[in-house]
Amino acid sequence: MRTAAKLELDAGTKTFASGLLADLIDALRRSRKGDLVALISGDPSIGPDLEAWCRFTRNSLVDVAVEQGRTRWVVRYGETPESVEDRPVGSRLWLYTNFDCNLSCDYCCVRSSPKAPRRALGIERVRRIAVEAAELSVGEIFVTGGEPFMLPDIGEILAACAAAAPTTVLTNGMLFAGRRLATLRSLPRERVTFQISLDSPTPERHDGHRGKGTWARALRGVELACAEGFRVRLAATVSSDAEAEEFRSFLDAHHVSEENRVIRRIVLRGSATQGIALARADLVPEVTITAEGVFWHPVGAEDKDLLVSHDIFPLAESFAAVRRAFDRENEHQRRLAMIFNCA
Questions:
Q1: Domains, the chain, ordered by start
Q2: Distance between CA 154 and CA 157 in Å, rounded?
Q3: Distance separating alpha carbons of residues 151 and 188, to the nearest angstrom
Q4: Model pLDDT for residues 83-120, shown as the tens digit of each residue
Q5: Could you tell me which residues come within 8 angstroms of residue 322 by beta carbon, excluding any fewer than 6 positions away?
Q6: pTM greater than the 0.70 cutoff
């Protein structure tokens, strides 16, 4: 999907040595912090100069695509807010067990839907990951998709993860019936947390993103998981500070504690047509594993710019590869990396 930009700047035959820099600065002067500016050129050699300029000026290169033989770079004006959290690389491990889903959310960062190929990680790989994660002293494991409860072996997957570290499963909470309910009931309450998506205090906004009737079904899933004795986090994906504050008030009124709430912004990746544009340099890495390999962060777990390695094992080397990549980012003495909480 093409990343939309506020301004489109055609470089023509210009380079940084022949007037392009002045045009780029003028474009940013006509923009506000956070706006996206696209630069298009038939000369791919502009890329390294543009990347170096972005690092020097503390802007971010958030997308690169080739269209009809010409390269289109998208630059975000200004850096993301600095995070105050300190989370060591490797302390949290994310597993995308699958990419198929029972819903087609319009902002899904990995394009999950009922039509998406499953691309399952598989129980055998999960078991090996869990064993090696325990050896690496991983503090938390997060299981996500797609919808993990689409998988017939999700119980075995969660049991393997929970044996290695406290495990949170991200779910829309709508499939807790029949054999899936039996699976839920078989899980260890003290080691498994459910993070269930609920985007708004009332159905309209949530259903607008996820489909008619989904808010009520998600709420039933929350109530069921709580009744079964599990810790439940509520997670809202919002498009504005006003929506975030509205949801906080809703959680306050229902006495949901801070540690059981996640409020995050829509990210301009995957299916989203608007949201926060995040580049790799903006994100503190959280090791993320899919069937395709090891990624920098769960918000871009199918995007080439966040792919670290196609090789998952040994897990220690996967972690080392992410740390090396992060060290290279830090060599530029920038402070754009941020925590973007998915859980």
A1: 7-76 (3.30.110.40), 92-330 (3.20.20.70)
A2: 5
A3: 19
A4: 545 688 899 999 999 999 999 999 999 999 999 999 99
A5: 89, 90, 285, 287, 294, 296, 308
A6: yes
